[in-house]
């Protein structure tokens, strides 16, 4: 492999690492604490804050305009839009942007309010999205949230058609625990603590902050996603009723008489700009999914994709053989009618059936990216066997004391610094190369873990420390082989080539065996063990790359490009 190709690969990986690690660095070091608190709020709270902040900003601009003042610096982001509006209206641009001139750039105050709200909404939702791409600190380091869920015995009774025995209830709770674990820990690196409590309750402790929406995300789909045929005539009458009586609701006004038996009224919802469910209308669907629908239990796979025409997120899912056959029959018998996608008793999407769908492959739209991803995850992990209700949610502190964490981190930093100093003292310039490779190795590990939204616990840190030790060991083996070649009288270039060739299989053998062990641990273990194993596996791959590729590139550059005839690798060999 040429030096240019190796350099290109290294630079590409560094660029990837920087992009993956940037959200973590930005969140922990550059986002103010007040902004973090807002980003961790619910979307309803974010909406209330953005609208309230927009009203305050508009009041400030009104006051500045009444006083004849210029635009306050914190609202200067409005000037470019006002400038564009002046040009569109073919007005002369003001020499100085006063608050009065700025407000004249909008049709009315309602438009100015909308622009302000959109700005504040975008800033906080962008931070909320950023938080989903960072390395979280585990329960032992920073605490998290504790959620207590209670199984709904009445719901299980309705599903079984009889009172469940204690054994059946216990089995349903156990299965629900496993499904929830799969939903929360989709990559095996979140390390939640899930345990069964008394009275058919489940206690979940998740690293991170008190965010109810995170809990609702993995509880999505308490019942499976089902397909229901829409009762067209009753829905048309219901839509006319809603047009005549805005704000009508079956919960308050009762179900109209024209809604036939065997059907139910469900709300059709979409997501607004904040990602909050917003009711569009009420519709009437057939309640019986045996004759007028299909149970989502036949879904075998679900993936998020993009609509090629609109580029909006879609959920593509596949039905098993029986489900495909029933779905084909259902669509063939209901061409011209509408079919609704129902989840958690809400219609998420519905559309008219144009033709029979015989393939068992279905695509549904009407979701944003986050909602589509959550729905796909729920469909892949199956429905909960029993409804679970949140009975308590609270913040829990770190399981380790602040003093223990501080001492542990100081010990890690001191050990890392001593390794760097030792390598420079013992191996001179070659030690400096090893240190650069070591730092790059650590950077790659954190970048990969950040890309997968890893939760960093003490066990994960232990995996990183072990990896650092193995990376140093690999460089020591390589350097000693180079020194042996150098002592035989070979030139610098030949010594480097011979040293790397002889050390290659020694380094590979040690790392591959450990990597295999890490893979077994990641599959057989769970929680902290799995987190340690995955961190170790990532670190091994990274350390092999930095030792065999990055370090070699530095040596080849010195001997081939700079034409160095001597190596600075030991005190008596330089």
TrEMBL record:
Keywords, A to Z, come to:
Cell membrane, Membrane, Protein transport, Translocation, Transmembrane, Transmembrane helix, Transport
Subcellular localization, as worded in the UniProt entry: Cell membrane
- SecDF P1 head subdomain domain mapped to chain residues: 293-386
Q: Which GO terms describe its molecular function?
A: protein-transporting ATPase activity
Q: Where is the Protein translocase subunit SecDF P1 domain?
A: 174-231
Locate the transmembrane regions by residue number.
407-427, 432-452, 458-482, 503-525, 531-555
UniProt keyword Methyltransferase, yes or no:
no
Q: How does it sit in the membrane?
A: Multi-pass membrane protein
Could you provide one GO biological process annotation from this protein's UniProt record? Answer: protein transport by the Sec complex
Task: List each copy of the Protein export membrane protein SecD/SecF C-terminal domain by range.
Answer: 387-548
This entry carries the following GO cellular component terms, namely: plasma membrane
- Family annotation (Pfam families): SecD_1st, SecD_SecF_C, SecDF_P1_head
Q: Which family is annotated?
A: Belongs to the SecD/SecF family. SecD subfamily.
Query: Which NCBIfam families is this protein grouped with?
Result: 2A0604s01, secD
Q: How does it assemble?
A: Forms a complex with SecF. Part of the essential Sec protein translocation apparatus which comprises SecA, SecYEG and auxiliary proteins SecDF. Other proteins may also be involved.
Q: What does this protein do?
A: Part of the Sec protein translocase complex. Interacts with the SecYEG preprotein conducting channel. SecDF uses the proton motive force (PMF) to complete protein translocation after the ATP-dependent function of SecA.
Name this protein carries in UniProt:
Protein translocase subunit SecD
* Organism annotation: Alkalispirochaeta americana
């Amino acid at each position: 492999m040429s030096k240019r190709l190796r350099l290109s690969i290294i630079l590409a990986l560094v660029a990837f690492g920087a992009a993956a690690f940037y959200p973590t660095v930005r969140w922990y070091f550059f986002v103010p604490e007040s902004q973090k608190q807002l980003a961790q709020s619910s979307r309803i709270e974010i909406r209330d804050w953005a609208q309230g902040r927009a009203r305050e900003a508009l009041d400030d601009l009104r006051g500045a305009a009444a006083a004849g003042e210029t635009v306050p610096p914190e609202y200067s982001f409005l000037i470019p839009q006002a400038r564009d509006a002046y040009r569109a209206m073919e007005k002369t641009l003001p020499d100085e942007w006063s608050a009065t001139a700025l407000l004249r750039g909008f049709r009315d105050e309602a438009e100015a309010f909308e622009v302000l709200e959109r700005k504040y909404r975008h800033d906080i939702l962008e931070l909320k999205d950023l938080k989903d791409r960072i390395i979280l600190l585990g329960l032992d380091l920073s605490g998290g949230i504790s959620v207590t869920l209670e199984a709904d015995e009445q719901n299980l009774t309705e599903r079984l058609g009889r009172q469940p025995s204690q054994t059946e209830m216990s089995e349903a709770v156990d299965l629900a625990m496993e499904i929830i674990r799969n939903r929360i820990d989709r990559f095996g690196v979140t390390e939640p603590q899930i345990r069964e409590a008394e009275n058919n309750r489940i206690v979940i402790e998740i690293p991170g902050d008190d965010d109810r929406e995170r809990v609702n995300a993995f509880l999505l789909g308490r019942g499976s996603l089902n397909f229901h045929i829409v009762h067209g005539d009753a829905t048309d009458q219901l839509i006319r009723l809603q047009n005549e009586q805005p704000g009508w609701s079956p919960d308050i006004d009762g179900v109209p008489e024209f809604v036939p038996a065997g059907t139910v009224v469900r709300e059709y919802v979409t997501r607004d700009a904040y990602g909050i469910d917003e009711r569009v209308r009420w519709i009437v669907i057939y309640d019986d999914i045996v004759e007028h629908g299909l149970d989502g239990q036949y879904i075998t796979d679900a993936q998020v994709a993009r609509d090629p025409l609109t580029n909006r997120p879609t959920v593509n899912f596949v039905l098993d053989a029986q489900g495909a056959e029933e779905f084909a029959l259902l669509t063939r018998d209901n061409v011209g009618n509408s079919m609704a996608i129902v989840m958690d008793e809400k219609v998420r999407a519905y559309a008219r059936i144009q033709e029979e769908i015989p393939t068992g492959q279905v695509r549904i739209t009407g979701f944003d990216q986050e909602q589509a991803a959550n729905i796909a995850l729920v469909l892949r992990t199956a429905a909960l066997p029993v409804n679970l209700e949140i009975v308590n949610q609270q913040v829990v502190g770190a399981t380790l004391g602040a003093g223990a964490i501080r001492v542990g981190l100081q010990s890690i930093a001191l050990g890392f610094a001593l390794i760097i100093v030792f390598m420079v003292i013992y191996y001179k310039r070659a030690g400096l190369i090893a240190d650069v490779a070591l730092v790059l190795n650590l950077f790659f590990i954190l970048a990969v873990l950040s890309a997968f939204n890893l939760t960093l616990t003490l066990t994960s840190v232990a995996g990183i420390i072990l990896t650092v030790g193995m990376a140093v060991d690999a460089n020591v083996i390589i350097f000693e082989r180079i020194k042996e070649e150098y002592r035989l009288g070979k030139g610098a270039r030949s010594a480097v080539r011979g040293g790397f060739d002889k050390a290659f299989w020694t380094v590979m053998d040690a790392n591959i065996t450990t990597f295999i062990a890490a893979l077994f641990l990641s599959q057989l273990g769970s929680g902290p063990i799995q987190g340690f194993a995955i961190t170790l596996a990532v670190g091994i791959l990274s350390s092999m790359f930095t030792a065999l590729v990055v370090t070699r590139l530095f040596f080849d550059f010195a001997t081939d490009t700079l034409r160095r005839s001597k190596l600075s690798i030991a005190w008596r060999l330089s």
